[in-house]
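At this stage, I needed to go through a protein sequence along with its fold in token form, as given directly below:
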Amino acid sequence: MSATKQATVLQPRVLLTGFAPFAGETLNPSWEAVRMLHGRRIGGHRIVARQLPVEFGTALKALRAAIRDTRPSLVLCVGQAGGRASMSLERVAINVDDARIPDNAGASPIDLEIVRGGPAAYFTGLPIKAMLAALRDAGIPVEVSQTAGTYVCNHVFYGLMHALRNRKVRGGFVHIPYSPEQAALHPGAPSLPVETVCQGLRIALQVALATGVDHKLGAGAEH
């Protein structure tokens, strides 16, 4: 094996995932932003971007396959949260699927465990307070979110943390707003340009890769 090929094989990787469009949308800004980072190097790691289907069960199979293929040092999953105005660093994933709308395969699970007999919840493995501070310093709208919902995003977040529970790999989830193109079709809905989201993800990953112990910073919620 040549030195160049060996360096490529040995270079640590970050797995970054986004979702396919859903709910009648023609694009999903999570994938549009994530794929802009594919192949880039951040903090000595190569970014590998993968798209996940908006389907219960199938999304987790695709995620687990991507983890096996890439053997990442860190995993960050990204999803669309139409109606939110900021990048949302998710704190906790809960062990329940409760779909308000069908997924892209037509499934609408109600009050089902994601992992039968699994823990009620998992906390993120990423330093979300340090990430919050860095994103604020960069002027990017950001918040710590206390709920990832009960749709496919939470399904993937919980499944990710369950898959990583016995591995020395950190993982977490970020929700992002509509893109401006989407918001134009949803009067009054906030948006964030995909380029800004891409910049925010790059900063978030830089911080996550460089931070071992998270900051102590108030970012809770009253309701």
Residues 10-210 form a domain with the Aminopeptidase fold (CATH 3.40.630.20). The beta strands are 13-19, 41-42, 45-52, 74-80, 87-90, 92-94, 121-123, 142-145, 170-176. The chain has one domain: 10-210.
